[in-house]
Amino acid sequence: MSEDGVVYRSSKTFKGYPCSHRRWRHEGHCAHVHGYSRSFTVWFESKERTVNGFVMDFGQLKPVKAWLEEHFDHTLLLDADDPLLPDFRALEAKGAAKLVVYDDVGMEGTARFVFDWIDAWVRETTDGRVWVVSVEARENEKNSATVTRV
User: Fold this and answer.
1) With CB atoms 3.0 to 4.6 Å apart as the test, which of 26, 68, 106, 140 could cross-link to 30 if both were Cys?
2) Do residues 24 and 79 make contact, with C-beta atoms less than 8 angstroms apart?
3) What is the pLDDT of residue 1?
4) Nearest to 23 by CA among 138, 104, 115
5) d(CA 55, CA 7)
């Protein structure tokens, strides 16, 4: 905390990332490829603000937006251990999909994936002055998952 015990927080929401995924272990319909327009709310924290009074200068977040677009804009998210991954890779080679593969493409796993990348980027960009305290990954207006630093 700062000298007076105060920690500042601000948030930025990134919306409109149409992508699809599948939960291959699921015994129901989630095992099928299905999609949503995802959004992400990132909470930043710092003990001190910039000379402009910001926790995080949102104008500096263009690389974050670009990373989110690369991973979640018109992509097909697959778990790294999906047994059909070679088949989906073949479809990708034919131009039918843009794959993004990581360990857990469910909402909780996606929240952690986004949290880890943005937190590392923010810490490096601000020389450790700012860090990510929370990321909410939302797949639609009804469902979301949040990862929070404790």
Assistant:
1) 26
2) yes
3) 54
4) 104
5) 10
- Evaluate if residue 134 carries a pLDDT over 90: yes
3, with CB counted inside 10 A (0-12, 13-18, 19+), is exposed
DSSP characters over 36-96? EEEEEEEEEEESS--TTS-SS-GGG-HHHHHHHHHHHSSEEEEETT-TTHHHHHHHHHTTS
β-pairing verdict for 8-21 and 75-79: parallel
User: Considering only the top CATH level, what class is 8-148?
Assistant: alpha beta
Query: Under the phi-then-psi rule, with left for phi > 0, alpha for psi from -120 to 50, and beta for the rest, what region is 81?
Result: alpha
pTM over 0.85: yes
Environment class of 100 (CB within 10 Å of its CB; exposed 0-12, middle 13-18, buried 19+): middle
Integer Cα distance of 76 and 34 in angstroms:
9
